[in-house]
Predict the 3D structure of the following.
Amino acid sequence: MKRIVTLLLAVMLLATGCRQKAKYVFLFIGDGMGFGAVSVTEAYLAQGEAGVAQGMGQLAFSDFPVMGAAATFSANAQVTDSAAGGSALSTGEKVNNDSICIGPEGDTLVGIAYKIHDAGYKVGITATVCIDHATPASFYGRSLHRGYYYEIGSRLADSGFEYFAGGDFNRPYENEPSCYAKAEAAGYAIAYGRDDFEAKKGSEKIVFFQKRDSSHAMTQLPTRLERIARDNPDDISLKEMVERGIGHLEGGKGFFMMAEGSMIDFAAHSNDVPGLIFETIDMSDAIEVAKEFYRKHPRNTLIVVTADHETGGPACNKHCDLAKVKEVCAPEGESTVDNYMDGHMSREELSQAAHIGWTAGNHTGDRVPVYAIGCGSEKFAGEMDNTDIPRKICEAMGIEF
Ligand SMILES: [Zn+2]
């Protein structure tokens, strides 16, 4: 009898993935991170680690047990932009390109972060570009156009979400009161840099921006290559924003954190191989932090990694030689990063030398990968639509969608 009960329990566990509901959920979005970006980066890592010319290295999510692929077309285009891609991942509905959480008929849509917040969980939104950029905006904002930064930035204050981190507001003073004044009036502490964050982290709701560079607002965090080149101790990364986010959101009923590796897309737009690889590795480092958290709470943590769309269509062509990229980007020795950053070797020359091909200087209509681990991860196996993803997350958390 005891054996049958154990067997039944084991079968139930297999069938449901976990016996509990997901209490801690991380949604990582690599902006523009298609299968090509992942494959080129894994090939680069294989070359780096083993000194061999072939193989696939490991990113933090390479060994996630569940994998699927999501279609990304929008309501009015086969090839989506970040606004429609982000809105689909947030609301579970297709919207037109450039729209943030407003449907093609003008209907206002409610994002997953609001549903999860209403159910009593804390919410964190992080990105490496301005916090009102299309992808993060899709999780708290609503606007007919992604370019209405003031309107989107203003909505941050109304969200009530506990944690925001990323690049500064894009157009905070376009109207009165400023996005800063609105956020502060709504009870947000705005912290610039880690010392300021440490001083203000007792605040229930906090916005974490990088320390200003000679009084200029940093609407975009430095890329990983820029951090290597400039070696500024004030630079923060997605990894640090996720770490501090966990510290801020932990405790209570649980949390949902959306973290975007925003600049993979920028690199892919300009067919920049080292940028593509280093920004993908940078997001992987942030995912490693979530993975450590998962190891501590394996029964009620869910991590999902995906993209809002593919960008650039990169691939390793025949005679592909990623050592060329390594030569250019070696963080030590002859300051080759500076050379590359200063444009002594063009992106095109490097792509040709490394035999990395690109199909576009813009987004493509390719499906994007979906990786999942933890509680409810089995829901993310196989082919799906991007609009299925928020629904599956809510299912895993036991929240009505
Ligand atoms: Zn995008």
User: Anything to note?
Assistant: The mean pLDDT is 92. The pocket of zinc ion is lined by residues 31-32, 82, 85, 135, 265, 308-309 (CB under 6 Å).
